[in-house]
Amino acid sequence: MSDSNLQGADVLKEVSSQKRKSKLLERNRDPWRRVKVSIGVIVAILFIFPIIWMLFVSIKPNGFSTTNPIEWFTPPFTLANYIDIFMNSLILRWLFNSLIVALITTVLTLIITSLAAFAISQMKFRYKNFIFVFFLLGLMIPGEATIIPLYEIVKSFNMIDSYAGLILPMIASPLGVIILKSFFDGVPKEVIESAIMDGCSYFKLFYKIVLPLAKPAMAAIAIFTFIGSWNNFLWPYLSILSENLYTLPVGLPVFNSTYSQAYVQPMTANAIASIPVIIAFFMFEKQIVKGISFTGIKG
Amino acid sequence: MNKKLWAHDFKAIPFLLPFFVAYVIFTILPIFKGLEMSLYDWTLVRKLDFVGLANYKEMFIDPHFWRTLWNTTLFVILTTPTMVLLALGLALLANMNTKLQTFFRGSFFLPSILSVAVISFLAIFMLQPYSGLINTVLHTIGIEAEPFWMADKTLAWVSIVVVTLWWTVGFNMVLFLAGLQDIPESLYEASEIDGATRWKQFRHITLPQLMPIGRVVLLLQILGSYKVFAQILLITGGGPGGATRPLIQYIYEVGFTQNNLGYAATMSYALFFILLILSIIQLRNQRMGES
């Protein structure tokens, strides 16, 4: 009897606590929620509007220029601008340059930073701490402020106006070493020890065991190096002289000013430069967002 | 023992060497090379006479140096608070539990991955008088004035700041978003039982919990804003009348247009020390945040 009473009381308690919970949820429902969501929608549209505008104007007929914004989003549409620009400008060449430079920069950065990070994380050698601190110093050296002497150094190697000059100065990323080192430090000791017991060489250990485990960190560094290189402006602007070797960010402004009277051609050129990154963004959005909080905070 | 250590050193060399060489040549060496250059008359073609501290003396009395350093500092002052507040606001919007969450995050972040050439070009065409999008909208809502965005000092600054916010706020938003997601849900639940209002929760839980990441965002922003160059060059060219010209642009012009790399390297040192101090503060701050 008393037992069942107790049970009843428990059930009641349960119900009332659930009621309280739902009441809490009720109150949790923010009265301003709708306002906030609406603000979010408006701001989001403002943010992407110029990009959408660019894409629409790029498919308007040649010579199109009007002050009525509605006409930008209504037919006629055509792909003629894209064909015209691909045929009559260096933009494909610049796309190729940007792609090649970004790819090679990314691969070389990954190779040299992961090798160095492995040595510092897993190997024994003299002056190890000193070398690590020496690499850490790089975090404090702003590339923008040493760009004039960098120009002289690259010039003394005869690498001004070359792919090598675009790529090599950008590959030694101290941040990459630090991120990868902390990642390699997290590889379980037993795994490493048993591999060494089995007579595994350091290189094999690096290549077969540690590197596969570090894929997420490698991916984050790869994405950021690639985007960084793709959008880099100052260094290519200084070090490249011939139009054939321009990367997109350096080539586009020239393009924009030569067509300054017209709307549509430069808009198309900018769309061509943006579409690959926009696609890449939608493919890698999650990794990019994760990567920022990963590299940004832990850096 | 010594032999064994040697063997270890030997094994480590191939792993360390590629990074070490690239790092020393392209990151460390420029600091010393810059020091050398600043003590010489140095043209794009070759090194000329040793001039001692003459370049430094010139820098201290060069009105263009001070003007462009001030312009850069003004840009830092204008962008930093607006950027931090906007990033926080957007992060709060993007953190709402709604079906539109992905849309919000994607839209706020998308401009950040576009090239500076693209965003500058879009800005120019939106801000053009007579045919630009902004002025057309202004006319449609009944404002008859025809603002010349690039020709007026104040309007040029407004344009540059707004474009920069639009272009780069997404990155800062993501940092705040990560911070928001790290706040334990239990804090909100507990405060709800105590009957805290949303506003009180925001003031007493969200804001204090975001302080560490807020400091990181703030310092990264100051550091980043001091390096401003490309969007100003491409949007206003430093005009009107040099009113928006930043220090890096002046360094570039002295070096590559006026053919005076020695003096350009000297002014780079001024920027170097500003950025170095900010980096040291930033790194210390981050380490504090982690421990």
Greatest contact between two chains: A-B, 98 and 94 residues
Specify the helix fraction band of chain A: over 70%
For the biggest β-sheet of chain B, the strand order reads 1-2
Largest sheet of chain B: 2 strands, antiparallel
Number of H- or I-type helical stretches of chain B: 12
What value does the average pLDDT of chain B take?
Answer: 89
Order of helices and strands of chain A: HHHHHHHHHHHHHHH
Tell me the Rg of chain A in angstroms: 28 Å
Low-confidence stretches of chain A: 1-6
Order of helices and strands of chain B: HEEHHHHHHHHHHH
**Oligomeric state of the chains?**
heterodimer
The profile of the biggest β sheet of chain A is: none
- Would you tell me the overall average pLDDT of chain A? 84
Strand proportion of chain B: under 5%
Distance between the termini of chain B: 37 Å
Compute the gyration radius of chain B: what is it? 24 Å
**Basic shape of chain A:** globular
Q: What is the tally of helical segments of chain A?
A: 15
Structural class from helices and strands of chain A? mainly alpha
The number of E-state strands of chain B comes to: 2
Q: Helix coverage percent of residues of chain B?
A: over 70%
